[in-house]
Structures are given as structure tokens and as C-alpha cells.
Amino acid sequence: MGTDSQDEFDNLFEDLDLTSTKLGRTESAKNSLIAKVMAHLDKIDFKLEDVNSDVLGDAYEYLIGKFASGAGKTAGEFYTPQEVSKVLAKLVTTGKTKLKSIYDPTCGSGSLLLRVAKEVKEVGKFYGQEMNRTTYNLARMNMILHNVHYSRFDIRQEDTLEQPQHIGQQFEAIVANPPFSAQWSASPLHMSDDRFSQYGRLAPKSTADFAFVQHMVHHLADNGAMAVVVPHGVLFRGGAEGHIRQFLIEEKNALDGVIGLPPNLFYGTSIPTAIMVLRKCREQPDNVLFIDASNGFEKVGNQNVLLDNHIDLIISTYRQRKNIDKYSFSAKLDQIKANEYNLNIPRYVDTFELEETADLDAIANELNGLEDDIKATDAVIANFCAQLGIKAPF
Domain 55-347 sits in which CATH superfamily? Predict the structure, then answer.
């Protein structure tokens, strides 16, 4: 209290209730359980003297991941699977070894911000915003447990679309996994908001996906890159979303790549998703790279998982902007315009597989052979039935 770090630690443990009956019905039972936890923690070597080791932070992320996978939809807001975080992190750090700033407008537990930091040598400052109070506290804890000094992170708690907390700031790297097709106010008052005003249309009230994208583009620095996870509907839905999509491509020319991911990667939903990569100053402003990575996964239990080789292929394809048959394609802006700015990946990456031509004569001969076999079998069965003095079943 009363120091520069007060805001970062304010009410950090407000969700911790040592009087909860979940710990035991009596004070003695509660004390006994808490003492056991303390004793177990005391046996762990946290290797605090090793600057390259983060036992506590890694254990924390492991537990959040396990909680999310076990709790399903109720925990999906807390956590982005590590392999998806890895893809997002590598996309926005392409060509960079240092980052002045990283921002996540829907930061959850903050694991995505920390994952980006692993891809570069140095990060100036971490910025994030989270609506859920408990999750906001988790994000601050996550930063502290990963040895991020309080002066190097600025995590705020509030609704990002309705009450943005980092007004006027721009960031070199922006990553996000916003809630899919969330509702928002879509209030006409937002038409005077710098984040949305130039587009002329607001994202629909029932699907705020593009509102998050517009928010991120507004906060993106000229030399920055952003990567955001979206449901596939964002790529092709019409109406206001189609208008916003066209503005992003035609007027801002900010869309750099679209990557289709496999289904069932995220906790609590099996829908396939995509990653949109946007830059304000693109190296190849005359094309957009489409990657269909929907078939590159390993099934582990009920979840699909991206392995390192799947991730490496996505990243190398994006960075080298390679055209790979049935996997990736660099589409010219004229081609996208001809498709009325529909970004549905199959329009650009042809994954059609020719089936073998059927030999109808061979099939007919096979069917005739089967008919002969059936007649021979029926005759044998009829003979057995006659010997037993019973009626044949045909």
C-alpha cells in the first residue's frame, strides 16, 4: 500500500477464501488441509536462483490448462491452448527480435502475452484488458509468477469494446483470442468512436467478432503486426460484416494472411476457426496469403492438437509466402475483389481430390459373380433344409 506497485497488487487475492467450507466443515479440518498444502509446497525446489527456470509459473500455466480442459466451456475464456498461442506468437514476431510493446485486448489469464515474449529476446511492456474480475486477477498473478516486474505490465479490468482502457496507445504486437460471436451493445454512439467511425458500419449486435478486429487495428502501430483467432463466419458473412471486411482490404489494405485451423482445438467448442493476420505496412501489399491447415493435427483424447511439425509448416509457409498445392495460395487483391471480398479459404486454396475413375464393366462382372455365389449358397442351404425336413428361408 502507498507504493508505485499498489495498482498492480490491489485486491489481487480477493477470490481467495480460507473460510470456505470447501476446505473443510470445521476450523480444524480447514487448518489441517491448508497445512498439508503448505507442507507439500515446502518440499518443492522452485529453483528461484535459476533465472532461466520458472517452476512456479510453468506449474501455474499447467494447472490453468488442465482446469480449462476439464471444465470445458466454462473455462474456455481463461485459456488459449499452448499450440495455438505458439502460432499466434510466431506470426506477430516474424522478422523481429525485440518488441517495444505487446497487447491483448481479451487477455484472459495472460498466457498468450507471455507466449509472445518467448519468441523474442526482449519485450518492453505487456498490456492487456480483461472483463472478468477473477480472470483479471489470474492475469496479474501470471505476470508476477513469470517474474515480470510490476512496472512492465499494465493489465486493466473492464469491457474492452464498451470501456477501452488504453485509449490513444499503439502497440507493436497485438494478439487475441476473443470470445467467438459474443454480443455487444452496437450502440449508435460508437459511430463517433475513432475505432469504428471510419468504417461507416458497426459489427452486428449478436456477433462482435469484427468489433474486436477493428479495436485491434486501431491500436496497431505502423510497424506492428496483429493476429486474431476468429470463427469462420467472419470470413464470409455479409451485411455489416461484409462491409467492414471490404473496408479492411480495399481501403486499409491491412489483411496480410488468413490461416484455417483444424476443428476441436479449443476447450468448450468444436467449431473450426481461422487466424487473421493484419499489418498496416505490408511487405507485399498486392496479395493476401491463404493457408488451409485444417487437416494438420493429431487427435489426443477428445481434443485435436497441433504438433510442432504442423506449427512449423504453417509458420514457414507464412514467412516465405509459399504457394503449396492444396495447402496455400497467394491471392491477388483483384481476385479477392472478384469474389466480392469473400475470404472463405476453399475459394483460394483448391483442396479438391479427384476420385479414381470407376471401371463399370469390371463392377458389372463383379456383381454378376456375386449373384452366382449367392445362388450356389442358396442351393446348399436348401439342401440342408430338405435333409432336416424344414422349409427353406427363401
Answer: Vaccinia Virus protein VP39 (3.40.50.150)
